[in-house]
């Protein structure tokens, strides 16, 4: 990896006293909030994630009192954190190994929620809110591997809904584990009666047995299922008591309904019970856990992963999800049977494509516009700056849209998982 140096133009510091207020970046300058504060989630292959809480003026290093981080290449006083009205900044303190943010070696650079920070050989993900939710041992459910926050955000909610007898729609991009989670959730109801699996992605038209009355409908890729089959399932559910549907969609259910891929009466069966599995790019703290699992299953030694390679794997977008990540790791291992794995054979997989501005809802549909803005803020953990990047909008445009829709995002809090 070529070394680059980024020096952001310093904005004049304000001399006014800092009050206990929340900055628009989502970072609190002088206090820890009730949601668990902000800071770094330290990640790696040899240890579970752990959190380091930060405050304005905190010094990070192996001898620091505020942000103590130990490890190879970390100086006693390695970097300093400062929070200003335009965001949070990290400044390297003239260290040998440097401070890296999103693959760029920086003297002083702004950081936002989800940015990947490397100090020496130690990787971390910068988190602006709910830092305490990231603290905890990683878990496994079948083939799914996930950290503490993800368990609280989407694993536990899906299982609780299914155990209570509710129907649930699991949304997510390819390869994030939604079909696996749906099958695991359906297994919870095996004792109640038959489970009928309908796969909308099958090459042939899925057939529903005449007179089928299962207690659980497992509808995979429901947004690709023909509408007549959706209607048939809806009628069957309406004629029986205690029947649940566990469905998956490759896009948000409201968008699928708006695009005509899901019939409104089928979507209404979920009564708003939708759980979204975020992409790997949105849960970067889980990537080392998944990489370790892939390495163990493919007999690849963990000592072959350099800090630079792991950083590149964490930073990549992975639009194909876990299968794409596994393919890249196996390819790198095959290209170098012995010794450290190289970035070169998988550089194409690591490259992140250009950010495409999504199709925004029309101004004539305020309810859908509000739902999508709320969804973007939830995915960004409440950070306006991160939500703006995801939507391809400026922060000012986000605030104008929120004002138009009557959404108070200045004091908005993301609910706990």
Automatic annotation (TrEMBL):
<dbReference type="InterPro" id="IPR009057">
    <property type="entry name" value="Homeodomain-like_sf"/>
</dbReference>
<dbReference type="GO" id="GO:0005524">
    <property type="term" value="F:ATP binding"/>
</dbReference>
<dbReference type="Pfam" id="PF00498">
    <property type="entry name" value="FHA"/>
</dbReference>
<feature type="domain" description="FHA">
    <location>
        <begin position="41"/>
        <end position="106"/>
    </location>
</feature>
<keyword id="KW-0547">Nucleotide-binding</keyword>
<protein>
    <submittedName>
        <fullName>Sigma-54 dependent transcriptional regulator</fullName>
    </submittedName>
</protein>
<dbReference type="InterPro" id="IPR002197">
    <property type="entry name" value="HTH_Fis"/>
</dbReference>
<dbReference type="InterPro" id="IPR000253">
    <property type="entry name" value="FHA_dom"/>
</dbReference>
<dbReference type="InterPro" id="IPR027417">
    <property type="entry name" value="P-loop_NTPase"/>
</dbReference>
<dbReference type="InterPro" id="IPR002078">
    <property type="entry name" value="Sigma_54_int"/>
</dbReference>
<keyword id="KW-0067">ATP-binding</keyword>
<dbReference type="InterPro" id="IPR008984">
    <property type="entry name" value="SMAD_FHA_dom_sf"/>
</dbReference>
<dbReference type="Pfam" id="PF02954">
    <property type="entry name" value="HTH_8"/>
</dbReference>
<feature type="domain" description="Sigma-54 factor interaction">
    <location>
        <begin position="224"/>
        <end position="334"/>
    </location>
</feature>
<dbReference type="GO" id="GO:0043565">
    <property type="term" value="F:sequence-specific DNA binding"/>
</dbReference>
<dbReference type="GO" id="GO:0006355">
    <property type="term" value="P:regulation of DNA-templated transcription"/>
</dbReference>
